[in-house]
Amino acid sequence: MQNFELYNPVNYVFGKGQIEKLKNLVPENTKILIAYGGGSIFKNGVYDQVKAALSKSFKANHIVEFGGIEPNPRYETLMKAVAVIREEKIGFILAVGGGSVIDGVKFISAAVHYEGDAADILRKRILFKDVSQVIPFGTVLTLPATGSEMNSGAVVTIEATQEKLTLGGSALFPVFSIVDPTVITSLPKRQLQNGVIDAFTHVMEQYLTYPHDAMLQDRIAEGILQTLIEIGPDVVENPSDYKLASNFVWSATMALNGLIQKGVPSDWATHMIGHELTALYEIDHARTLAIIGPNLYRVMFDTKKEKLAQYGKRVWNLTGDSTEAIAEEAIEKTVAFFHTMGMKTKISENTDNYENTADFIVNRFEERGWKAMGEKQNITPEKVREIVEMSY
Amino acid sequence: MQNFELYNPVNYVFGKGQIEKLKNLVPENTKILIAYGGGSIFKNGVYDQVKAALSKSFKANHIVEFGGIEPNPRYETLMKAVAVIREEKIGFILAVGGGSVIDGVKFISAAVHYEGDAADILRKRILFKDVSQVIPFGTVLTLPATGSEMNSGAVVTIEATQEKLTLGGSALFPVFSIVDPTVITSLPKRQLQNGVIDAFTHVMEQYLTYPHDAMLQDRIAEGILQTLIEIGPDVVENPSDYKLASNFVWSATMALNGLIQKGVPSDWATHMIGHELTALYEIDHARTLAIIGPNLYRVMFDTKKEKLAQYGKRVWNLTGDSTEAIAEEAIEKTVAFFHTMGMKTKISENTDNYENTADFIVNRFEERGWKAMGEKQNITPEKVREIVEMSY
């Protein structure tokens, strides 16, 4: 097992009716900013619940609101919130939304006290390790998928230059996150499907590499995959079923809260290629993962076949003596699961005029100087080309 | 799934050679107390590693030592450390040892600023939620088993009155814990066996109850059990095998760091009965669990048979249609595993003159006013009698 440090100070508050606890979780005598996205919180009742909980501890003039944080949150938008916080002397931010709103708030939190050009936080990958550098924040999750509610990373896009960049550091964990699984009841089926596949692929990126000594991490990763496979097809049909909803939401957090990555190699090339499909064709993030993942496993079969066979045996209960046969069947089982979850696993099913996709992506990676990706750093531009062309 | 709060701010630093990181983890400009037990740290080299790491940041006159914390740490001993801390104006405690030393340091941490009779911390079950109430502490683990390195609970015995009592609260998490799996190399085989069975039973107490909706928690619990079954027999023979050691030590932490208990019912009656066997006959804690656990499952069979069958299928790969038959076989598999791990699973194999054990334990529980235990509060004194007599 590789050496690791596990540090995750988020107070994670899970369950029905937990939004009411906001009144005890948000610090008193502080002016707070409620940050949100496109306004779905007004339709699903979460805004009203948040305001009702806060009204017990806060006077109305101690609460400022900032809406309009986009999916794939924009630096330009977030800097407007930074200006509001500086002007209004805000001491605490409450992110109410999904991964984009929470990611956006992480950037806002880091930018307020940053001296110099705040874009450097992203471009120079400044790490925030000291909580005195940032504005503390909590979250109320409304869309499970990204795990942002229980990790310290974020992705932000600079609109002007079309750069999608990351930030992070141990000071950027939420102080608390309230996760009420009943919030998924009002989500469109497409978003629920995306959430399941996004969480599933987060696990695969950290699990489907090569055999190693971290036995318990493998078991936990397999447990999350099994749970998502068991509940996925049903939860998108019956999101008001609390058993299904609660296991989905908790699995999505556990998929990317840092635990299963400790001590193990990880891949993340599916995400890196998928991001380009979103940039090119605006295909939903999760749907790009469903397209790329299985073809990446096929192209990198020699690297991954032992782990694919373990996955096939333990997660899909496949049997047999041939590592290769079980590994191949495991990929087919995965694709079939993605189809059950409403994914279209070819680029051509998601967009027209895709013929130059491989050229475009390979060029882009080469421009950035990326020589290789993946857990063995053997997913070269040529392999990327093969994966993308196989995905047409 | 039951509502839950998950909060665990321990900076858990795992792996080979990590003790060296002490120089960055212990706060500077603070006088520190190194607390330890019977002196095994002088034989296994951990003391020297700790002193070497600290010498890089601390002058010798900023380090005070306190040894002699017993297994089942005594209130009377710990109060001597409290006096040292008050006199020497210590600002940070470093616990170097196993669960007893770490539990003892949690009490010391809580008692220093406590006004009034410190025994009330235990007798009145005072919760410590505010870090300003306590002296911060870190740990260097030398004996895996209890999970104390990553939780906020402790057990302390008041010698004068023979009371074994608990304390806890979110302020009593270690600030950091350094867990180097190579420390187990020098442990006696008996302690390694005990550590595996202690960790295994910690999982069973939180898992082996009745079927519920927390699907992922079950999977994680089963993953820890499977890992301990896979490595247990070998790690006690080859503790210097890093693959075995690292999975054992990490599994022991995960068994009782709070994660698998979230959202689920738990039992803990095996521990409560087992504690009395230790008090009566000084049988090692883990060995009392190996005696009581299987007989508790037998006596409470009607309550636990569905979960026993799930455990049999998923952890032991048992097959068949009869819930009862699989459940029974699962108990036998568990006993056989305990025997493989060197446990003697009858009281009569561990002590002579045991005939009045059931009377004694049942009387003791009745004196305390305990009417029932277990996840369904149906382990009555009469059931306890049956379990203990079956264990003769």
UniProtKB/TrEMBL annotation, chains A, B:
Organism whose genome encodes this protein: Flavobacterium profundi
Keywords associated with the record: Oxidoreductase
Family in the record: Belongs to the iron-containing alcohol dehydrogenase family.
A Pfam family hit: Fe-ADH
GO cellular component assignments: cytosol
Database matches in Gene3D superfamilies: 3.40.50.1970, Dehydroquinate synthase-like - alpha domain
Fe-containing alcohol dehydrogenase-like C-terminal domain span: 195-388
PANTHER family per UniProt: ALCOHOL DEHYDROGENASE YQHD
Alcohol dehydrogenase iron-type/glycerol dehydrogenase GldA domain location: 9-181
Molecular function terms, GO-annotated: alcohol dehydrogenase (NADP+) activity; butanol dehydrogenase (NAD+) activity; metal ion binding; methylglyoxal reductase (NADPH) (acetol producing) activity
Protein name: Iron-containing alcohol dehydrogenase
